[in-house]
Design brief:
Layout (H helix, E strand, L loop, with lengths): L41 H8 L3 E5 L2 E4 L1 H20 L3 E3 L4 E3 H7 L1 H4 L6 E3 L5 E4 L4 H11 L8 E10 L14 E11 L2 H21 L5 E4 L9 E8 L5 E5 L6 E3 L5 E2 L15 E4 L6 H8 L7 E8 L2 E8 L3 E2 L1 H8 L4 E3 L2 H8 L16 E4 L8 E4 L5 E6 L8 E3 L2 E2 L5 E2 L7 E15 L1 H5 L4 E2 L5 E2 L2 E8 H11 L1 E2 L2 E2 L10 E5 L5 H16 L4 E3 L6 H11 L3 E5 L7 E6 L7 E4 L3 H16 L5
Parallel strand pairs: 3-7, 16-19, 19-22, 31-32, 31-33
Antiparallel strand pairs: 1-2, 4-6, 5-6, 7-8, 8-28, 9-10, 10-25, 11-12, 11-25, 13-24, 14-21, 15-16, 15-18, 17-23, 20-21, 25-28, 26-27, 29-30, 33-34, 34-35
Helix pairs in contact: 1-11, 2-6, 2-11
The structure holds one RNA strand.
Length: 599
RNA sequence: CGGGGCGUGGCUCAGCCUGGUAGAGCGCCUGGUUCGGGACCAGGAGGCCGGAGGUUCGAAUCCUCUCGCCCCGACCA
């Protein structure tokens, strides 16, 4: 083996080399033939089998050499795009004193999700879940004048969250790498610019990493934020639902999605009828009533008793619809919302759950979903155990505030174009958020404007889950043989594989090809292991190396093979002298194709 | 936090019901034969059966407690 190969390459000042030795035989790449029993989702299984990660504890993973190489490449892409919009990279402490979190009020709000600890003096500390407080603390100490704004600061580092239930490998963990950036602007217009810049940077980042994302409108929560968008990767391994319109661009988080309910299955009975009680012994569910009355669930009125801010509210929906707690809490202006306990219901209604309805309710507000507006002569509970009413007409037989409190469902009409909406399971990989003044106001960040008046800067925060990009990329791109990494974030771009390591000609050719790849900046690994070719091919496929140059039988005729992992096309024969140039062309084309081309 | 499942060499698992000297395949080490999609033969190393307590002459196996991991649900700035 030529010793030149294992000597560190000369490094120009200021450039960063990941590792000088790229000989497979020298690297720690512990691939597994069998799938470890604890792994359920594809990305988790493959990350383990391909030797990218090992688990240390529930939701805590070690990133081994290959995993770290991919993560570093992802981080580098993020870094480039963040720098391109003028953001500045910081490195912040993971260990935070309680005080800053108490100032913002989140010491209490975060509850058991925050890792907390005490130092030797008994002082409270926590491990940072996110860095709004720290960034704001820096800003308020240093920013004095409008002339210093806007600012965009970011960091790529480990954050902690004591998840109640870590799961799905790297998809939901307790310690993770996150890119978070924070913007400080003089006014809302400035924030709009920072937000838009991040939106575009994020599109570029995800495109370059080879993950297909759907940007969706998201709920900004009870934090007073005005606008928020999530970047979602469609995948069955995900746990967030997103509503998308196949016809127009509409897409929204399920919590927030608006839609038009489908037309009821049966037209309402005509006429100005009065409510009429009927006996329904033991019938409690909507399904029971459908069977009993012979009317579809869309003719039933569902009554849910909620407790909002400590006070009862009656929520009404069409029988087949689900309540959106997010929309409901917004509708009633309460942050804390929960279903009522059965004993409370009996107390307030004098009837058991299953026989409730809006008629005659005086002791609480009634909020009805808009899908009930204009309906008439429906079925509802009678507020008398085992009795229901027919011919109940909203607005006549009871008064209610009509608001959209319904969770959208697949098949609903798009509010923009009317097409039938689809529902997708997704993984959240990024979130951009107009924070407003929450942190700057509570933590006392103020600068002077041009008139010398004190003003509070407006903030935004923008996060990306780095491991989630890796995991969701694998979720989207894998086959029976292993991971199908894009060249942009694969741990290595090409595996140079001599079939017979004992053949000095093959070895020499492989070393030359390897060296030529390095010279052209192609991240190569030379599989110099004294293994049977099948083992090398299987490993290269499993690990997700996008290109392979195989040096074998036809070398004496000056021919080697090039295999493209994605697409499953058969290997092509290429002249030895041309193969690296050919590879370079393919890689460049792939990288160029991954760039975001705009909307 | 509720419900379920599982802890036995590095990995996948058998053995447990019916207590009696801890097994297989893969991987690993040595030698040999092989060498284009996870080779074959021979030899070998490696396990306080998650932990603690109990029952018993005797516990991987039965009982109690505990810890850990996975899945479903609740939760998720």
């Amino acid at each position: 083996m030529s010793s030149a190969l294992i000597e560190p390459q000369k490094t120009r000042p200021g450039t960063l080399k990941l590792h000088p030795i790229m000989l497979w035989s020298k690297l720690f790449i512990p691939t597994l033939r069998e799938t470890p029993a604890e792994a359920e989702v594809a990305s988790h299984q493959l990350l383990l089998r391909a030797g990218y990660v090992r688990q240390l504890a529930a939701g805590v993973y070690s990133h081994l050499y290959l995993g770290n190489r991919s993560l570093l490449k992802i981080q580098q892409i993020i870094r480039e795009e963040m720098d391109a919009i003028g953001a500045q990279e910081f490195l912040l402490p993971a260990l935070n004193p309680a005080e800053v979190w108490q100032e913002s009020g989140r010491w209490d709000v975060m509850g058991p999700n925050m890792f907390r600890l005490k130092d030797r003096w008994g002082r409270d500390l926590c491990l940072g879940m996110t860095h709004e407080e720290i960034m704001t603390a820096i800003a308020r100490g240093e920013l004095r004048s409008y002339k210093q704004l806007p600012q965009m600061w970011y960091q790529i580092q480990t954050k902690f969250r004591d998840e109640a239930r870590p799961k799905s490998g790297l998809l939901r963990v307790r310690q993770f790498i996150m890119k978070d950036s924070y913007s400080f602007d003089i006014d809302a217009a400035g924030l709009d610019v920072a937000y838009q810049k991040h939106y575009e940077a994020y599109r570029k980042i995800f495109a370059r990493c080879g993950v297909d994302v759907i940007p969706v409108e998201a709920d900004s929560g009870a934090m007073g934020g005005s606008q928020s968008m999530e970047f979602m990767v469609p995948s069955d391994a995900g746990e967030d639902f997103v509503v998308v319109c196949p016809a127009c661009k509409y897409a929204a988080n399920l919590e927030k999605a608006e839609s038009v309910a489908v037309v009821p299955g049966t037209a309402d009975p005509e006429g100005d009828l009065s409510p009429e009680e009927f006996h329904t012994p033991g019938l409690k569910s909507i399904a029971d009533l459908c069977a009993f009355t012979g009317l579809p669930d869309s003719s039933q009125m569902k009554s849910l008793v909620m407790v909002a801010g400590g006070k009862p509210v009656l929520a009404l929906l069409r029988g087949e619809h689900q309540l959106s707690e997010t929309k409901f809490s917004k509708a009633v202006g309460a942050t804390e919302v929960r279903p009522a306990h059965p004993f409370e219901i009996v107390d307030w209604f004098g009837a058991e759950p299953g026989s409730l309805g809006p008629v005659g309710v005086k002791n609480m507000p009634v909020v009805a979903d808009v899908a009930l507006e204009g309906r008439k002569n429906m079925i509802s509970g009678a507020n008398k155990t085992d009795y229901h009413l027919r011919n109940v007409t909203p607005g006549e037989d009871f008064q209610a505030k009509f608001v959209d409190i319904r969770q959208s469902q697949a098949g609903d009409g798009c509010t923009v174009c009317g097409a039938a909406l689809e529902m997708k399971k997704t993984i959240e990989v990024g979130h951009i958020f107009k924070l407003g003044y929450k942190y700057s106001a509570s933590m006392g960040l103020r600068v002077l404007d041009e008139k010398g008046a004190e003003i509070t800067p407006i903030m935004g925060s923008y996060g990306i889950g780095v491991e989630r990009i890796l995991a969701s990329c694998i979720e989207q791109h894998h086959d029976k043989n292993g991971i199908l990494m894009p060249a942009t974030i694969a741990p290595f771009v090409v595996a140079v594989t001599p079939v017979n390591q004992a053949d000095p000609l093959q070895r020499a050719a492989a070393e030359k090809i390897y060296a030529d790849c390095k010279a052209l900046g192609i991240d190569a690994i030379l599989d110099d292991r004294d293994e049977r070719p099948g083992v090398k091919f299987k490993d290269a496929d499993l690990v997700g190396i996008p290109y392979r140059i195989t040096i074998g039988k036809k070398l004496p005729q000056g021919i080697v093979e090039m295999t493209v992992r994605r697409g499953g096309a058969p290997a092509s024969e290429v002249a030895v002298d041309a193969v690296v140039a050919e590879l370079k062309k393919l890689v460049d084309a792939e990288v160029a194709a991954a760039a975001w081309s705009g909307n």
